[in-house]
Amino acid sequence: MKYNYKNLFASQHEKFTAILGQDYFSSLLVDDDLSDSAVIISDKRVYQVGRLYESRSGLRGGGIRVARGKKIVSLTDITGTACKEVTRPLAGSSLIIFGVLAAILGLLSDVRQSTWIMLGIAAIAIAAGIWLIIKLRRRYLVIEYAGGSIAQPVKFITDSELNLFQGIIADEKEKLMSGLGDHKECPHCGEKIQLTAKICRFCGETQKEPAQEELR
């Protein structure tokens, strides 16, 4: 799959590393369709494009703020990642309580027909309430960074994909912090050399002068 990085990365020298839910989100970068959300990792930064999800008052109680655009965070600013669930049980719980009250009223009724009607209503309300609680449950991958967080919905993402993605973030940050992020591949021999190197120490070929933005 060939992705369109033309207007995505902050530096032309950045290299694509991973995208969360590659098959599910692939059209975002191929067709420039930003109607949904994706998180992309380069060797220097983390990007969220399309819908931007951000934790406002803690994910446990909801508090997800949604905007649209692009967020850029340096890998060196990432402080941790976690997978969290957001539940909004108010509507579902209200239906369940209503169902319980309807069942109680039905059992207290002296009219058999009214009892069965109320019990039927109670069963429907309780079932609807349980379904609503499950339906409104959302799972997010939260990427914490200095000054905020990125919350990415991961409804269609498997646990193995999430673990792999979090591992990639940790690995790329470690490389960048250790100085390996300031290296590039020699276009002639493919070996890793310093970003500012003028001559490859492996094959001796002259290197193209990097653009100023590539040194950032």
Question: Can you characterise this structure?
Answer:
The protein has 216 residues and is an alpha+beta fold. The protein has three domains: 1-86 and 138-178, Pleckstrin-homology domain (PH domain)/Phosphotyrosine-binding domain (PTB) (PH-domain like, Roll); 90-135; 183-216, no CATH class. It is 33% helix and 28% strand. It contains four helices and nine strands. The strands form three sheets. The chain has a four-stranded antiparallel beta sheet. Helix 2 (90-108) packs antiparallel against helix 3. It is rod-shaped and about 95 Å long. The protein starts with 15 loop residues before the first strand and ends in a 22-residue tail after the last strand. Mean pLDDT is 80; it is low at 212-216.
Care to give the gist of this entry?
The protein is α+β, with helices and mostly antiparallel strands and 216 residues long. The protein has helices spanning 22-30, 90-108, 112-135, 159-177; strands at 16-19, 37-42, 45-55, 64-74, 78-86, 138-145, 148-153, 183-185, 192-194.
Give the SSE map.
Layout: E1 16-19, H1 22-30, E2 37-42, E3 45-55, E4 64-74, E5 78-86, H2 90-108, H3 112-135, E6 138-145, E7 148-153, H4 159-177, E8 183-185, E9 192-194
Antiparallel strand pairs: 1-2, 2-3, 3-4, 5-6, 6-7, 8-9
Whole-angstrom Rg: 26 Å
Let me know the largest β-sheet. Answer: 4 strands, antiparallel
Identify the CATH class of the largest domain: Mainly Beta
How far apart lie the N and C ends?
28 Å
Instruction: Give the name of the CATH architecture of the largest domain.
Output: Roll
The spatial strand order of the largest sheet comes to: 1-2-3-4
Low-confidence stretches: 212-216
**Secondary structure tally, helices:** 4
* Beta-strand proportion: 25-35%
Number of strands: 9
Average residue-wise pLDDT: 80
Shape by Cα distribution? rod-shaped
